[in-house]
Specification:
The structure is a single chain. The chain has about 475 residues and is of the alpha+beta class. Among the domains are: about 90 residues, Pdz3 Domain (Roll); about 160 residues, Alpha-Beta Complex (2-enoyl-CoA Hydratase, Chain A, domain 1), CATH 3.90.226.10; about 80 residues, Muramoyl-pentapeptide Carboxypeptidase, domain 1. Helices cover about 35% and strands about 20% of the residues. It contains 13 helices and 19 strands. β15, α9 and β16 form a beta-alpha-beta unit. α8 packs parallel to α9 and α10 packs across α12. The longest helix has about 30 residues.
Length: about 475
């Protein structure tokens, strides 16, 4: 028996070797017989162009061969869905995707009034499943996630090679449950863990508030998502602000991951004057359609847009329209840079294809894809706004060095506990700052950055960030509107 097994194994090796030799030489013979001279070392076959019938026949042959000959039983549906996934992956487009029935339902729910999860748009960035944009005041934002954060693991399981839909299915879950993401962030040498408690995300597409500054009443419309009814909500709240007699308007799309294209168009119709373009759509055949504003007269008050690196897609359409079509200022930071348009095409079984069908251009015909919309007035937030979620297990003490210590130093300084540095070296002044923080919060006073201190520190910094008095971008926008209103 052992002899037979050995002989069989040797036979397989011989067959594989002979097959490989025949394949290589077959290509060479084929090219030589066709009259094409081969250059030294050339081994590639001439390109064979198949017509549609031949291509479908090839697909059928592959399907039936796998079904009839593969060593294990496999469902036809699984093969077909794998083929569809393969077609989409061939596009090499991070925003095109095949969504199975469950993923398609989740996608539609994400654009509805509420869903359960962490509240972040996720996509492929440089081949990694990554955070595109955390929603404002969502669990993802409160946990400190930022655009372009690459997700390496979910609950300790590596997601290398996973599709976006596979990752999203694991990240989403019932409100109140916890998920831990292992994050790799640009500028940080080591990955870190972020634990997030899922919640029911209520999608309030537009929020309204007002600010009094130097005798002027400034209205703000904060667009959190371009959902189905965002245009109607925006119109209603804008009318209410105008009845209040605002002297200027701030349109805030920071942290907005986008949504429906027509939502940006509808809002553009309410803000962009003189029938100028809101957006231009470039189709695959090169034809360009311009969608012009239906509003004729310019608003009697100044308008300023607020943007940041989490403003993506439809947010960028509106921001670019304000900047180019209405000659309005944009305050903040360069946006994410997504200049393509996707359509969700439902399949008969409830699954869907989300594919890129068009590119969008600004009013002046510019593309912002992978570049973003630049502000006219640059304004960053304080350093502690960009600090990552602290991940402290064993704790840190004097003379240790860690990126976590550096983030804690940023937070402490932002809260008024001066560390004198933020380079991650735990010196005496950092220890004094931690002691002062611990004393003021009735914590154990040991001068160490332990888990309890880190948790309270992060809680305080999030409260500090949500205090509008500390929002330097918003305050700069208010000042700019007041300046323009007084001109």
């Amino acid at each position: 028996m052992k002899t037979k097994q050995l002989l069989f194994t040797m036979s397989v090796v011989v067959i594989i070797a002979v097959a490989g030799f025949f394949f290589i030489n077959g290509l060479q013979l084929g090219q030589t017989n066709s009259g094409d001279a081969l250059e030294d070392g050339q081994e590639t076959a001439p390109e064979v162009i198949l017509d549609d019938n031949e291509l479908m026949e090839k697909f059928e042959t592959a399907l039936k061969t796998i079904e009839g000959s593969y060593v294990s039983e496999i469902e036809r549906q699984q093969l077909i869905e794998g083929a569809i996934n393969g077609m989409v992956e061939t596009l090499d487009d991070p925003f095109s995707d095949y969504m199975d029935i469950s993923s398609a339902a989740d996608f539609q729910q994400s654009l509805s009034s509420h869903f359960e999860g962490i509240g972040a748009e996720v996509g492929l960035v440089d081949g990694y499943v990554s955070i595109i944009s955390p929603m404002r005041e969502s669990p993802a934002e409160k946990a400190g996630l930022l655009p372009n954060d690459a997700i390496l693991e979910i609950d300790g399981e590596s997601i290398e090679g996973w599709s976006v839909n596979e990752a999203v299915a694991l990240i989403r879950g019932e409100g109140g449950t916890e998920v831990t993401l292992t994050i790799q962030r640009s500028g940080n040498s080591e990955p870190f863990n972020v634990s997030i408690v899922r919640d029911t995300i209520e999608v309030e597409s537009v929020r309204s508030d007002t600010f009094e500054h130097e005798g002027a009443l400034i209205g703000r419309l904060e667009i959190t998502s371009f959902s189905e009814d965002v245009g109607t909500q925006f119109d209603q709240l804008l009318q209410e602000l105008e009845v209040e007699g605002i002297d200027g308007l701030i349109v805030d799309v920071r942290g907005n991951p986008g949504g429906y294209l027509d939502g940006a168009q509808k809002i553009g119709n309410l803000l962009i004057p003189e029938g100028k373009p809101v957006v231009q759509i470039e189709h695959g055949d090169g034809e360009v359609e311009s969608y012009n504003s239906s509003m004729q007269d310019k608003k009697p008050y100044p308008i300023v847009g607020l943007i940041n690196g989490s403003s993506a897609s439809a947010s960028e359409i509106l921001a670019a329209a304000l900047k180019e079509s209405g000659n309005y200022d944009l305050v903040g930071e360069t946006t994410f840079g997504k200049g393509t348009v996707q359509k969700s095409i439902p399949m008969s079984d409830g699954s869907a294809l989300k594919i890129t069908t068009d590119r969008w251009l600004t009013a002046d015909g510019n593309t912002i894809d992978k570049e973003g919309v630049e502000p006219t007035v640059e304004q960053s937030q304080p350093d502690y706004f960009y600090s990552i979620a602290l991940s402290v297990e064993d704790g840190f003490e004097r003379d240790q060095v860690s990126e976590q210590i550096g983030h804690a130093q940023n937070m402490l300084s932002g809260l008024g506990y001066d560390t004198g540095r933020n380079d991650g070296y735990f010196d005496e002044q950092t220890e004094v700052a931690i002691i002062e923080f611990q004393e003021s919060h009735d914590l154990e006073v040991d001068g160490q950055l332990n888990a309890e201190t880190a948790e309270k520190l992060q809680e305080d910094i999030l409260t500090h960030i949500r205090d509008l008095e500390n929002d330097e971008q918003l305050n700069r926008a208010i000042e700019l509107v007041v300046e323009q209103a007084s001109e």
